[in-house]
Amino acid sequence: MFLVRDAFNMIRQITDQGLVIGLWGALLNIPQFIGGIAFIDSIEGKVVLVLSIGTLMVAGQMHRHKPFSRLIGLCHLPWLVMLPWLVFRLAGHDYSPLHGYWIHYVVGVVAISLIFDTADIVRYIRGDKSFSWVK
After folding, report:
1. Dmax of the chain from CA atoms?
2. Inter-residue contact 56 to 113 (CB < 8 Å)
3. Do the Cβ atoms of 70 and 122 come closer than 8 Å?
């Protein structure tokens, strides 16, 4: 299926750009995916898993058509709803320690990613259309 192929092509091309970029992508996405599966019995697990897969598929398509565009962060728009919802869930529910740590982790990396995404969109608007770290 082209959605999966394009997503994996994007991951490979991004990780080829260097250790820091590949590490950030792994730290952002892999724990979300694994935790989503591990906590699939919870609504948080389902939401994070679906959104992590969905944003990856959208990002893969964006990258296919405009490689290394700063606009790729737009694929994270659903996180603008997920992030406050997860914070709200943390405040109002008791979780097992591991489940709670995972949600805190997701909240942290998603918040950092959204800050990066916002900066990238501002740079795009100012004329810096692609990432400077691209080899």
Report:
1. 46
2. no
3. no
Task: Report the chain's mean pLDDT, rounded to a whole number.
Answer: 94
Per-residue tokens: 17: 């750009």
CA angle, corner 109, sides to 107 and 114, nearest 5? Answer: 90
Percent of the chain's residues with pLDDT above 70: 98
Tokens of 93: 């529910």
| DSSP 8-state code for residue 78 | T
Q: Which two tokens stand for residue 91?
A: 């405040």
CA distance 113 to 25: 10
Total count of residues recorded for the chain: 135
Does the pLDDT value for residue 135 go beyond 70?
Answer: no
* Half-sphere exposure in the Cβ direction for 93 (13 Å, CA): 17
In the chain, the amino acid numbered 31 is P
pTM score: 0.91
